Amino acid sequence: MDNLSVDHLIGIKNLTKEDIELIFKTADSFKQVINRPIKKVPSLRDITIANLFFENSTRTRLSFELAEKRLSADVVNFSASSSSVKKGETLIDTVNNILAMKVDLVVMRHPNPGAAKFLSERVKAKIINAGDGTHEHPTQALLDAYSIREKHGENFEGRRVVIVGDISHSRVALSNIFCLQKLGAEVMVCGPTTLIPKHIDKLGVKVEHNLRNALEWCDVANMLRIQLERQDIKYFPSLREYTMLFGLTKDLLNSLDNEITIMHPGPINRGVEISSDVADSDQSIILQQVENGVAIRMAIIYLLASKIDRN
Ligand code: CP
């Protein structure tokens, strides 16, 4: 297979295992490119990409922009806070105005689940979902799985990954569950009962409420922050209590018999879900995740751009 089975990247749910493996193989080549003295290839000189961010972002926005520039695409950036969205313009009108400027591919982050799919059904450009509310964050899951592959090898069969934290409000968790399961890994979620969706076991994941048990089970722990900005009520008594029960400390890590890999999609809340010495430890691959994000996004953009009619 030399191309993706999809025309847009809306979610991991829509990808096949072969799609994911093709993205990884393509990212391997681009990882070599971004580690060369000249970090650029001319592949997308004729392509224009718009990055539309209707929600805050540091890593994803910068990573997409770098990936696009490394591929030599023309790039325009849009952030809702400084746009005419504030004057009442609809999403579809905003996007159609941008597309009228001959944009080929749109990367969009939006607070509403389904926004990327909505757009893909109404505009001609290729769409990449950079996070839609609590739904999916597919490029994050791909870079997370790619980082696990780099550390633990290509065979995911039997690999055990626990996702710890605010599963209910996390798009990273859902995309990671889909991605890791498609690759053959076993997935567990861990957190307080109030932050784990009631019927999540129907997705085939294990559920654990004790952090030590979860860490003793896994090869990799992906620590998530509490998404306070998406919480309408209080889901636990205090952050201090959450940290006591679900915060990963160096003492806890050192007391385990197994040496596990620590991940975090960022932004980190140091001293809440993860202590500084764990985040900065040799077992943490948090910054490798960020580095891999550029190669993974180059791969996805390159593969989707090859489906654009360039005549
Ligand atoms: N991991 C992630 O999506 O980070 P940003 O919100 O900073 O893009």
Q: How can the largest sheet be summarized?
A: 5 strands, parallel
Number of helices: 11
Could you name the CATH homologous superfamily of the largest domain? Aspartate/ornithine carbamoyltransferase
What's the pLDDT, averaged over the residues?
Answer: 95
Model description:
The protein is of the alpha/beta class and 311 residues long. It folds into two domains: 12-136 and 291-305, Aspartate/ornithine carbamoyltransferase (Rossmann fold); 138-287, Rossmann fold. The chain is 38% helix and 14% strand. The protein has eleven helices and nine strands. The chain has helices spanning 17-34, 59-70, 91-99, 115-120, 138-152, 171-183, 211-217, 239-246, 250-254, 276-279, 286-305; strands spanning 48-53, 74-79, 105-110, 126-132, 160-164, 186-190, 206-208, 220-223, 261-263. The strands form two sheets. The protein has a five-stranded parallel β-sheet with strand order 7-6-5-8-9, sandwiched between helices. Helix 4 links the parallel strand 3 (105-110) and strand 4 (126-132). The longest helix has 20 residues, at 286-305. The protein is globular. It binds phosphoric acid mono(formamide)ester. Phosphoric acid mono(formamide)ester binds at residues 57-60, 131, 137, 140, 265-267.
